[in-house]
Amino acid sequence: MNVAIIGASGYTGLELIKILINHPKFNISYIANSSGEMNVQDLHPSLKNVINMDVNLANAQEVAKVADLAFLALPHKTAMVFAKELLALNVKVVDLSADYRLSLETYEKHYCEHGDKENIKDAVYGLPEYFKEDIKKAKLIANPGCYPTATLLALLPFIDYIETENPIFIDAKSGVSGAGKNPSDTTHYCQINDNVHAYNPFKHRHMPEIEEKIKILKGKELAINFVPHLLPLTRGMLVSVFATLKDDIDVNEILNNAYKDCEFIRLRDKPVDVKSVAGTNFCDLFVTKNGKALFVSSAIDNLLRGASSQAVVNANILCGYEEYEGIPKIAYVP
Amino acid sequence: MNVAIIGASGYTGLELIKILINHPKFNISYIANSSGEMNVQDLHPSLKNVINMDVNLANAQEVAKVADLAFLALPHKTAMVFAKELLALNVKVVDLSADYRLSLETYEKHYCEHGDKENIKDAVYGLPEYFKEDIKKAKLIANPGCYPTATLLALLPFIDYIETENPIFIDAKSGVSGAGKNPSDTTHYCQINDNVHAYNPFKHRHMPEIEEKIKILKGKELAINFVPHLLPLTRGMLVSVFATLKDDIDVNEILNNAYKDCEFIRLRDKPVDVKSVAGTNFCDLFVTKNGKALFVSSAIDNLLRGASSQAVVNANILCGYEEYEGIPKIAYVP
Amino acid sequence: MNVAIIGASGYTGLELIKILINHPKFNISYIANSSGEMNVQDLHPSLKNVINMDVNLANAQEVAKVADLAFLALPHKTAMVFAKELLALNVKVVDLSADYRLSLETYEKHYCEHGDKENIKDAVYGLPEYFKEDIKKAKLIANPGCYPTATLLALLPFIDYIETENPIFIDAKSGVSGAGKNPSDTTHYCQINDNVHAYNPFKHRHMPEIEEKIKILKGKELAINFVPHLLPLTRGMLVSVFATLKDDIDVNEILNNAYKDCEFIRLRDKPVDVKSVAGTNFCDLFVTKNGKALFVSSAIDNLLRGASSQAVVNANILCGYEEYEGIPKIAYVP
Amino acid sequence: MNVAIIGASGYTGLELIKILINHPKFNISYIANSSGEMNVQDLHPSLKNVINMDVNLANAQEVAKVADLAFLALPHKTAMVFAKELLALNVKVVDLSADYRLSLETYEKHYCEHGDKENIKDAVYGLPEYFKEDIKKAKLIANPGCYPTATLLALLPFIDYIETENPIFIDAKSGVSGAGKNPSDTTHYCQINDNVHAYNPFKHRHMPEIEEKIKILKGKELAINFVPHLLPLTRGMLVSVFATLKDDIDVNEILNNAYKDCEFIRLRDKPVDVKSVAGTNFCDLFVTKNGKALFVSSAIDNLLRGASSQAVVNANILCGYEEYEGIPKIAYVP
């Protein structure tokens, strides 16, 4: 199937290109960014001798001529404009931005007014382990945020077993690629190297995304107390989930039962690390308890399972292909 | 006053040398490690043209001849042997190991049998903001662990305001120097670079140290659920404290009141980072809340406030000098 | 074709596994290290859900039963023992150690007495761009060292154009994975992070390897003045070649002519960086001059083009497959 | 003596503040940047509880009222405007920019038209080991560039012993702080981490600075072939000097003789590293040879010996104080 990548300049756009180049079913027929008029090798010099294609100025009409599905690796607000146009032209959309992840009400509370109130209603949240049946029938996938992916996969199996009146705390740690490619004071090497700090504690926009999905899947209104940190590493994300158990249960058994058929979730008997998942679609999980105190540690590659490889898994399911065709499994270790 | 440094080979030994070289009151009269027969410049080549002294094979009798106070930067179990001998010779001791930090009972439960049951009873826990009066009269200071220092300074002001039946969670993040100078799989560059992982979750030996000091100071038996992580940075430590508030209180006011006279504790209105404290004795604190959920973030230099500079503060107080004479304040930024 | 990997514990062993898992022609039928009795997932936890095979105690007889070709990722001296046995059993060998890279005389001068004087004579040096015809007919490939690979590919095209009486200087910069997986003072994170230094200046054993190959290919006895440096990065190698040009020539044209048909050598019009080649078999080259002064900059992934992927290219050629079947091209950027 | 720091926002401005806070003779009486109206703690949060001063909008008239000497940590072109005004007001100037480092002719060839043709003639190049007598009498010091400092200290002692018709090659490696505080694609963490590359090979503006100073001091017109690299570390600079010796000389003896009375130059018998000098004014040197091939390795802290601490040494000499009063000697190891 011919596919388009809109928003090829950023990190997730590059990761999409890298996955799709070798994908057995998808063929990249169109690449676009906001300027066009260059070769993809000018945009990403590491692709020299790997792929040789023009980068176009993004145009939905042109996409519809050459592709049946489009991946949108665009900033929020820009994504909804293209998604709306593409859907009207019968192009399926996997959107990596935040634009279709939330209910309209929650979106407008935390982001801005929404410009595509029609399609947001039908968008499917692309967390494959929990929404596979919906994804099969979808025309528009809202690819989850990186923090929600790592958090939900760790937390959802335990929702029925924890005291929901007690606060749930999430201490999340992200590599710098999560902050995007644009240079800023925050991403300056001298600011990041040998440093670590929290940012937006209890105020990050991924917090309502996590809360809303728990409500949809588990019927419970929980307050997620989410504190992200920026770490001196390029890619990878490690999330600590802390909660209070109601009873003295076997926490490993719960996790095993939840994910026994999930090839891309690996339960570990030692604390997980990001290097074992960097470069892959895996989510590695570790769980332990101390009396009623629960700790789940969740590791993903923020650009892959937290964005681009999960997007391709969603596209695989949506198109009726094997779920894990062409999905990266080989980590960047050492 | 003449002072000795026993255990000069490791990172905390080096930091002691670096602080004491320029100290207006202390004079290094003796340096020892476990081999001797070298110059301190052979041990630490960065000290060439800075200090020129012999390193001796550690010997308590020799120490007593030339020094009134000794800093012990030794592994636990070794430290207690020297401390016992030195105290018998009327040399005051600031011990950076774990050997005198706990009650005898707690020590023997979490470490091993104690070889100096006499002195452990009289040892004073050297957290200056909380034990200054005891430190003034002490002969033996147990210098706190790095994790307990960062955690207690963040948590203690809030003990009276939190639900103590609910779990308190500590998500701690340490630079690699905290693991010591000996090479191991854990500290190999390729294992640490671009990586992050928890270790000993809910099982670290700094957990009972934190619990015991809270009980002594606040009379409450709390379960501290402590999860340390190893981060790709050389020095620095960031600790997240998560707890449940009982009431809708002004969390900044509480922190301000607790530390308004403490020159080396800085309250910040933005999340703290380790780079602003690396190279100094400062503990930087940030606090916020989300309903009843409390988050305190605490940053220290693990080798200084978490070890060597705090040891010198303790020695200053014990010797009746100005508390902060010769204590490093200038951070390693950028 | 069934292949064996002997020496699966180290970094190059792991890279061989990672390449061969997805190779369209080679099938891994045997994996061994020096202890055996484990699963490859115990050795390399990142391979969980990727490959499930026993790791054997290395045994040449067993290899010969199940494989037609063996990759040896062993220390020098150990490699020659296995190579000798395997060749006697008609198993072809690609040896990643130094044991067969040099003439017997040069080897014994710089390393130690050689235990396989028979086979060293027939070993083919596996630098594909220069020895392809010999590789096709070989039974034993000596896979080049990482420094010689990056240096020779940069220097060889210019040998005819430089003053050979003037010193040639090589300033090489390697990531830490080149020092291997065993922990040491040298590879401790705190020693490497924020640091850089030369080691073995003018004394590294890759120096005679470079000199000997130039003599074989170009008939000239040159003194290569080689200074390697250790850098704070995990993988990647950047080599500066400095020499004196005889005439005012077009240095880019020379490089273009030398490698115009070489898919895995990329000539760049901006200075090359290691990130664009990390994860791939590419060698990126940049050249410029200042009067008679020549500068060539060469970037490779030390574990791939400098070891494991070049080994698989050699195996491809030796077995009559397409030279670049299954060879990694997608870099680890960002 | 009261001193002013003009240009307090950048890295070298911060380092000046950090040195001068504890200087026994200099007193910071004025701090300025291009916006003013803030406290120095707002500009550099790490200075909280360390120094409490207003930052002013830079104004030469105000400086002249409160200070006898000014350090200019400004971009080139801006620096000359202030220097001219301050000198007219009888304020002595130590300028850290490039504006007064070169002869007028060389400056205008490599930078731009010069706006202070009067004072550039009398500026003294502040490399203390070579220009001490001139510095004593100067009113305007041109503080050397970081690359020229590390290169000249390594190369000057050998000028009389090398073949000057053969190219001299400099392979320099700098930490990212050398690129300044402003965020850019070049200094983005994801671009620097795990990466290394050359930039401006044979074209850097520090090349003519090195050449001109050799001509002044040694009377020889040499072509310096200079290739800088950007490394994944915050501070520190390592420079390789490669040249051809005329005779079989004792290279260590030459270096020893050149610097036997220089407290801040340390000759090493092992290759130097940047970590041993980071945080200090030291220049560490190592030399070896291979036949006629010479290799000198030179390590400095680019922000201190390459900028701010050398500026304070110059100020000490100029003011008749002890050369090394208040100059940092304690390295940031580990």
From TrEMBL, chains A, B, C, D:
It is an enzyme of class 1 (oxidoreductase). One of its GO terms (biological process) is L-arginine biosynthetic process. Keywords: Amino-acid biosynthesis, Arginine biosynthesis, Cytoplasm, NADP, Oxidoreductase. Its main location: cytoplasm. The active site is at C146. It is found in: Cytoplasm. This is N-acetyl-gamma-glutamyl-phosphate reductase. It comes from Arcobacter cloacae.
